[in-house]
Write a structure and sequence with these properties.
Number of domains: 1
Order of helices and strands: HHEEEEE
CATH topology: Immunoglobulin-like
Strand order of the largest sheet: 1-2-5
CATH architecture: Sandwich
Largest sheet: 3 strands, antiparallel
Number of strands: 5
Length: about 100
């Protein structure tokens, strides 16, 4: 699970960077609209691994559906499988905590 955790942290960092970037002029007047996705925790579960994410929508608009495809790596650092994490709706100005149980 250690390599899975490190891989997911790197992946969520990579996902959050493009979502948080905005036009340069927006940085001068107000914070840029962003959708931040944080891997807040990873622990063993009955199914394999439980991941806890914190998502903050400051885009200024509701998202009726948000889902992200992630790669899960094995101990050798090779992609083991792809899976989709469905966060469902993300209301504007709200923070949402979501848990996912992944097999393996």
């Amino acid at each position: 699970m250690t390599s899975l955790t490190a891989s997911l942290r790197l992946l969520t960092s990579v996902l959050a960077m493009p979502l948080a970037m905005g036009p340069a002029w927006a940085q001068q007047s107000a914070p840029a609209p962003a959708l931040t996705l944080e891997l807040n925790g990873a622990q063993a579960s009955e199914k394999g691994c439980r991941l806890t994410f914190v998502v903050n929508n400051t885009l200024g608009a509701d998202l009726s559906k948000a889902a992200f495809e992630i790669a899960l790596f094995n101990e050798a650092g090779v992609v083991d499988r792809l899976t989709v994490l469905d966060f469902k709706d993300l209301p504007a100005g709200k923070t949402k905590v979501t848990r996912f149980d992944l097999a393996g």
